[in-house]
Amino acid sequence: MNYRPFEVLKHHLSKAQTFVFAAEEDFGILPVEAQTCGTPVIAYGKGVPTETVIENKTGVYFTEQSESSIINAVNYFENNLHPFNAVEIAKHASLYASKRFRQEISAYLSEIVLRTTN
């Protein structure tokens, strides 16, 4: 597999109708990156997508890692495009932004330091 810069990935994700994520992972960043581009995700309903994809708001789930389950999810998605709003999807993905993480971890660590010094 050849490396592609993030801007190339972002370009493709921004133009995609959806992003299918069939893996079960403890943290798959690709579903979040797709949502950052406003692209809904069709994901296997186990692992991290259950924490980062909101059913019928930022994507849909399929229940088995099988061809028929993915096809059913794609068909459901295609027949229910109206609930998917790119702006809302991107807004949801901002919850996982590195800037937010840095701010919150910094605030948390400051709080811990204050508690231990008092």
In short:
The chain is mostly helical.
Cα separation of the termini: 53 Å
**How many distinct helices?**
6
What share of residues is helical?
40-55%
Oligomer: single chain
Low-pLDDT ranges: none
Largest β-sheet summary: 3 strands, parallel
Overall pLDDT score: 90
Spatial strand order of the main sheet: 1-2-3
Strand-and-helix sequence, N→C? HEHEHEHHH
Radius of gyration: 17 Å
DSSP strand count = 3
Strand content: 5-15%
- Shape label: elongated
- Look at the helices and sheets and give the structural class: mainly alpha
For this entry, give a set of tags.
single chain; about 120 residues; mainly alpha; three-stranded parallel beta sheet; 3 strands; about 55% helix; elongated
Provide a descriptive summary of the structure in words.
The chain is mainly alpha-helical and 118 residues long. It is built from six helices and three strands; from the N terminus they run αβαβαβααα. It has helices at residues 6-15, 29-36, 49-52, 67-79, 86-93, 98-117; strands at residues 19-21, 41-44, 59-62. Helix 3 links the parallel strand 2 and strand 3 (59-62). The longest helix has 20 residues, at 98-117. The chain is elongated and about 60 Å long. The termini are far apart.
